[in-house]
Amino acid sequence: MKAIRMSEPGGPEVLVLEEVPDPQPGAGEVVVALRAAALNRRDVFVRKGVAKVPLPLTPGSDGAGIVHAVGDGVTGVAEGDEVIILPSLAWGDDQRAPGPGFRILGGPDQGTYAEQIVIPAANVYPKPGRLSWHEAAALPLAGLTAWRALFSRARVQPGETVLVIGIGGGVATFALHLAKAAGCKVVVTSSSDDKLAKAAALGADAGVNYATAGDDWPAAVKEANGGGVDVVIDSVGSTWAGSVDSCAPGGRVVVFGGTGGAKVEMMVRPVTLGQVGVLGTTMGSPAEFAQLLAAVDAQSWVPVIDSVRPLADAAAAHEREEAGLHFGKLVLECS
Ligand SMILES: NC(=O)c1ccc[n+]([C@@H]2O[C@H](COP(=O)([O-])OP(=O)(O)OC[C@H]3O[C@@H](n4cnc5c(N)ncnc54)[C@H](OP(=O)(O)O)[C@@H]3O)[C@@H](O)[C@H]2O)c1
């Protein structure tokens, strides 16, 4: 089979299409013939060596496809099943946090930028019937992260206002869809007026261009919203202080990313005086993935696809993701 391989960290050119042996299922495993894979910001961090993983590696956490082979002892999954892949491995039994063995497909484990992948049978779920292959492949990592951030961590309620930082991002677009479906008002920020217009078309109630607003963007958020927000979904990291400043008293800021940098310096007083909760989160558990898939079945939104490319063009997709030109998810066609 063919797969995108990287044998050293570096620019997009380290992503090379190679012929590799077909994977074989061990006990409890299945081989999925992937129809599509999707990018996450994590893939850029892995490719650049910011996230340290053993090499050589097939990158990619997201995918959907058809079960091609089934290992010994597998029940409930059969050849020919159309499936979507849960990218988190060994979450453990504690819903509060992943256990010590927690891992993600696409580093250290071999990922989805391939024609086939071998994974535990427990990591495949029926593909949501109303999603296309591209949409299904786009959902898992970013959709699950947005789900856990909103519902398990922030515990958003209908009627609350949710601020989503950097709406062009993959997780951000899922947060917009899921918060609107939950009956929330949603305010978004972006560096691009074009992306703000796209978010409005998807249902965003207000938008602020953080590039033109500059350091005063939290004041612009409050003006656009008519007051502070209840919940902030912050994937950027360097924005934590502004996210706290955007809150109404007692607001909650959910954090899971460091696109803007891994280190934050901020004042203590706005957190204490404002009674603001800062809540860490990460992708999510199998139980939360099942909840997400049930919500997708019951709701009518579809994942936002920025663009679709053949697997061989993974490097071009990485260039677009790294430059932040995208709105939503970048998809690779695997077969
Ligand atoms: N811990 C976890 O389990 C977990 C899971 C998923 C994601 N993450 C992290 O979450 C982050 C987002 O992931 P993703 O895949 O959604 O990334 P992505 O699709 O690459 O999104 C990046 C977006 O961030 C926005 N952004 C960048 N700098 C900004 C700034 N200074 N202020 C406001 N917005 C800014 C931009 O939005 P505009 O284009 O609209 O300006 C950009 O499009 C990454 O850091 C990722 O590693 C962590």
Ranges where pLDDT stays below 50 over 5 or more residues in a row are none
CATH class of the largest domain: Alpha Beta
Tell me the CATH architecture of the largest domain.
Answer: Alpha-Beta Complex
> How much is the radius of gyration in Å?
20 Å
What coarse outline follows from CA principal-axis ratios?
Answer: globular
Q: Helix and strand succession?
A: EEEHEEEEEEHHEHEHEHHEHEHEHEHE
Which band does the percent of strand residues land in? Answer: 25-35%
Span between termini: 11 Å
Mean pLDDT: 97
Please, could you describe this protein's structure?
The chain is of the alpha/beta class and 335 residues long. The chain folds into two domains: 169 residues, Medium-chain alcohol dehydrogenases, catalytic domain (Quinone Oxidoreductase, Chain A, domain 1, Alpha-Beta Complex), CATH 3.90.180; 138 residues, NAD(P)-binding Rossmann-like Domain (Rossmann fold), CATH 3.40.50. Helix content is 29%, strand content 26%. The strands form four sheets. Strands 3, 4, 5, 8, 9, 16 and 17 form a seven-stranded mixed sheet that branches. Strands 12-11-10-13-14-15 form a six-stranded parallel sheet, sandwiched between helices. It has a two-stranded antiparallel sheet with strand order 1-2. α8 links the parallel β13 and β14. α3 crosses α4. It is globular, with a radius of gyration of 20 Å. The protein binds NADP nicotinamide-adenine-dinucleotide phosphate. The site of NADP nicotinamide-adenine-dinucleotide phosphate has 33 residues, from α1, α3, α4 and β11.
